[in-house]
Amino acid sequence: MKGWKGLLRYGGPWYGNDAQRARFELGIKQHFPSLVASNVGSGQKAGRRYVGVLTIPHVEFRRVEILFLKNSPDVPSITVDGPSDSPHRYKGNRLCIWHPNDPRAARWLFEDGLVRLVGLIVAHLFREAWWRETGEWLGPEAGHST
């Protein structure tokens, strides 16, 4: 049967499937070469982690960790180092980049890929630095609890 392999379904998370992982990570080394990927943990703590240093234009460098856990493989947990004072951070230096109820154009979805996610992280970190300097948040905001 021609093309039968395309009919097979993969039962694990996307990062265990070479084709799905390659699509998700497409272009990341070209745009953000410092990011290093690895599969981590086991059981409920298993997942895919990306760690690297990002250049924030006109501001600073930040070390970032993006973690996709096996039990929620399309929802990243994003943590960064540096100053934690921001109206858009959760405890533990986790970033709040979008609200789940935001319109599609205002949030990241898994099919957008890793390059777009990292681009949103860089933009968010620039906004945080601007806010620390001026008290003004550049762009739309949604309130949340920490």
Q: Can you describe what's shown?
A:
Helices cover 23% and strands 23% of the residues. The protein is α+β, with helices and mostly antiparallel strands and 146 residues long. The strands form two sheets. It has a four-stranded antiparallel sheet with strand order 1-2-3-4. A hairpin with a 3-residue loop joins strand 5 and strand 6 (94-95). Mean pLDDT is 86; it is low at 1-8.
Q: Give the number of helices.
A: 3
Please give the largest β-sheet. Answer: 4 strands, antiparallel
Low-confidence stretches: 1-8
Work out the strand percent.
Answer: 15-25%
Strand order of the largest sheet: 1-2-3-4
The computed structural class is alpha+beta
User: What string gives the helices and strands in order?
Assistant: HHEEEEEEH
Tell me the radius of gyration. Answer: 17 Å
In whole angstroms, the N-to-C terminal distance is 55 Å
Q: What percent of the residues sit in helical stretches (DSSP H or I)?
A: 10-25%
- The global form is globular
Number of strands: 6
Kindly state the mean pLDDT as a whole number? 86
